[in-house]
Amino acid sequence: MGATAEGKKKLVAVVDGQRESELSWREVLLSLKAQGLLHAPELAIGDSALDLWKALQKLPNR
DSSP letters of 37-51? Predict the structure, then answer.
């Protein structure tokens, strides 16, 4: 789930994978970038067990 600058909620991805896997999160983030995401997310909310944090740190041009 994402939000526009105006605060409107948008569904950005639905992916079958291992939700705690760094590789799965990296694939999601790179897919979003390929679809036009210009900047890394300004805010991410999630469980500390998620490897989303590792994937975000390694995202090129964050």
Answer: --S--S-----TT-T
Q: Model's pTM, two decimal places?
A: 0.70
DSSP 2-61: EE-TT--EE------S-TT-HHHHHHHHHHHHHTT--S--S-----TT-THHHHHHH-TT
- pLDDT single digits (tens) 6-59: 989 988 888 887 777 899 888 888 898 898 888 777 888 888 778 888 888 887
How far is Cα 7 from Cα 21, in angstroms, rounded to an integer?
Answer: 28
Cβ burial, residue 14 (10 Å; 0-12/13-18/19+): exposed
- Domain locations in the chain as residue ranges: 20-32+50-62
